[in-house]
Amino acid sequence: MSTAAGIPFLDLITPHEDLQEELCGVFRDALGSAGFIGGPMVEDFERDFATYCEARYCVGVSSGTDALTLSLIAAGVEPGAIVVTVPNTFIATCEAISQAGARPDFVDVDERTSNMDTEKLRDYLERDCFFDPRRRKLIKRRTGMPVSAIVPVHLYGQMADMDVILELAERYGLVVIEDACQAHGAEYYSQREGCWKKAGSMGMASAFSFYPGKNLGACGEAGAITTNQEELARKVRMLRDHGQSKKYHHEIEGYNSRLDAIQAGILQVKLRRLPLWTEQRRAIASRYREGLEFVSHAVGLPDEPAWARPVHHLYVVRVGDRSEFMNHMALENIGTGIHYPIPLHLQKAYAHMGFRNGQFPVSEKLAQEIVSLPMYPQLAAARQEEVIGQVLAFVADRDPLYNRMVPLAMAAAR
């Protein structure tokens, strides 16, 4: 029987209703001061978000895409150079690389985590590239182009294996820019440093998105760059504001990528709730695992290595007959999503780069099986039990071997 009220994939209404008075106060403050661009609201948010990420500096910009683009430019990634990333991410990762004047190239992902496979990265750097002592650069053998940077994507809110990535980058003289657009507050245990590290604190710079559906979302477009390097932060501040070091003094040609003060004020209000929201997401992820572990042979659950403390921007499972599964959930008024259905190397936008089907088999396989279940802090336990129950019911209808035992699992989930 269908769930009468329905369970949305994402609820952006409830948190804004709960925070309505504070959010409206931000708007009133901006109207009263006419401080719409820059100013104290932006500076206060930059300070507090840097502290939250355990980074020295934060620079607010207009989107997560711009955050990654400006990070690459400020880090000195030269036009025409290769930037290595993964094919199973949103296109903004590659757009930023291209818009910085560089060329994206890919290594496949680890099937367990969906993040960059560090052994494949090692193979790429050691087998597909060579060090040119004359140019003092790592060169890709097939194209003769220099390799300049690595952009690991902390997909779905779980950090990539950063120790290995940073060690390889140091060995070959490469820049590391974290794509942390889905990973606000995610943590990684660094054996190199002997402590937990936050997303946004490990690479030369890190890009965050505050698109409304993110764990920390604005009421519009917004983004930020975190870094521990003062000079890089200075360059980004100029780049976001037409290359100005001060008004009408343009040291370089820049961009119009400033963070609106109202969005910064909204983010400041929400940042105070983010630790609670993160714990609520982790509790929801734990309930999913407890309720679905019994059928993990049919519904693959996300892997969480011991070195990871994810923030569960998305809760992504794997189902062999995905279309049937999504149809089943839709009939029960339960929202689902796919993140992402076509790997970037197979997108029409990158057909000119000559990638072929089969080059990145793990990403291609995942793209056929992944399904995102409802995940947001306000998802009540009782509603989540309905989601779990319908996943179990779907498996029961198609798996006679487990059909007798599934009702017991459904009861345990409650």
Describe the structure.
This protein has 414 residues and is an alpha+beta fold. It folds into 2 domains: 14-271, 3-Layer(aba) Sandwich (Aspartate Aminotransferase, domain 2), CATH 3.40.640; 274-413, Alpha-Beta Complex (Aspartate Aminotransferase, domain 1), CATH 3.90.1150. It contains 15 helices and 17 strands. It has helices at 14-18, 20-33, 40-53, 64-74, 92-99, 118-127, 162-172, 230-239, 261-271, 274-292, 322-331, 361-369, 381-398, 400-403, 406-413, and strands at residues 57-61, 82-85, 103-106, 129-132, 137-140, 146-150, 175-179, 187-190, 195-198, 205-209, 223-227, 244-246, 249-250, 299-300, 308-309, 315-319, 370-373. The strands form 4 sheets. Strands 1, 2, 3, 4, 5, 6, 7, 10 and 11 form a 9-stranded mixed beta sheet that branches. A hairpin with a 4-residue loop joins strand 8 and strand 9. Helix 4 crosses helix 8. The longest helix is centred in the C-terminal third of the chain and has 19 residues, at 274-292. The radius of gyration is 22 Å and the shape is globular. The two termini are 17 Å apart. 45% of the residues are buried. The mean pLDDT is 95.
